[in-house]
Automatic annotation (TrEMBL):
Molecular function per GO: 4-hydroxyphenylpyruvate dioxygenase activity
Record has Metal-binding as a keyword: yes
Family per similarity comment: Belongs to the 4HPPD family.
Protein name, UniProt field: 4-hydroxyphenylpyruvate dioxygenase
Organism expressing this protein natively: Pseudonocardia lutea
E.C. number(s) listed in UniProt: 1.13.11.27
Enzyme category, top tier: oxidoreductase
Amino acid sequence: MSIDHTLTSQERLADLDLDQLRRLVGLVEYDHEGDPFPVTGWDAVVWAVGNATQTALHYQLVFGMELVAYSGPETGNRDHQAYVLRSGAVRFVFQGGVDPASPLLDHHRRHGDGVVDIALEVPDVDRCIAHARAQGATILVEPHDVVDEHGTVRTAALATYGETRHTVVDRSRYTGPYLPGYVARTADHAGPEGRPERLFQALDHVVGNVELGRMDEWVDFYNRIMGFTNMAEFVGEDIATEYSALMSKVVASGNHRVKFPLNEPAAGRRRSQIDEYLDFYGGPGAQHLALATDDILRTVDVLRARGIRFLPTPASYYDDPALRARIGEVRVPIEELRSRGILVDRDEDGYLLQIFTKPLGDRPTVFFELIERHGSLGFGKGNFKALFEAIEREQARRGNF
Ligand SMILES: [Fe+2]
């Protein structure tokens, strides 16, 4: 069996090694020779936002990300401004329309701030697209080279749920800061200590909310078109509260670097959080991004001090004797978790700590999870009920429950 030990260019830049990644995001070894759509890892998450200039500053000052590249009118791009930020191996690109006729502005009118592209680094763009096409995928951008003084990037894009896409990128022959068309750019301000602080290291998973009754079609899409395999499966009762329910299945790339849980609403007595998302995003889209950290306590303390709001966890969660019995020993006293509202889950492989923010923008749509894994390859199944009850209280406060 040949084992893939390749790091993405972002992971190398972040000085992450395979052991750290295994701990942070639960990598597994696999045979990439037999993979019809080999994926090295995440390339970038591209967002369409109402004001990229201010959003980029927000992610630097609040989330501690580092500005590394820029594209806009000054660089010959008259359509939009785009800011490329990174934290560890995580790369976010924030795009906002400049030209009143920019398609980005139409996208933003329909969906609000959200993820337009979950881009993946691959070793062979043509092989991936040939396979995807043969399996019936919608190819949005044909494989082509883009070139500048830093080298050549080969890239293409295929459609996934809603108006979301997966760009695939081979950057093995490229040394520039992001892509041709972008120039290197650093912050105009001095950070707190003059250096970015890396509050999160890697992207763990990106969850997609899809249409009622279509989750299995999208699982099949990732199986057939992108060669992803099924991980844990959660259905019905697992994620039901007294009032609402959802169904969720998880697919992953061969090495588990890229994990996509897919949710659909399920019938309940009231509207679920997935229904609320679909109404306000205007269809399927990325629901949450899980950011892996090796010190969730510090990350939560820093973000909370800067005004990020997290979903409150009911005090009863920590008093529940069943929880204490279920989670066993974790690295910090439970009081440290309680004071921050951090959730714990344990399975046969280990445990994980997690917490969820409130929606990031004006619409009740995309949000973040922070996750610190200690062996567990799961997604916090044991926390779903406690968590969804907290989400429903928030939905009720917004008048959407
Ligand atoms: Fe998650």
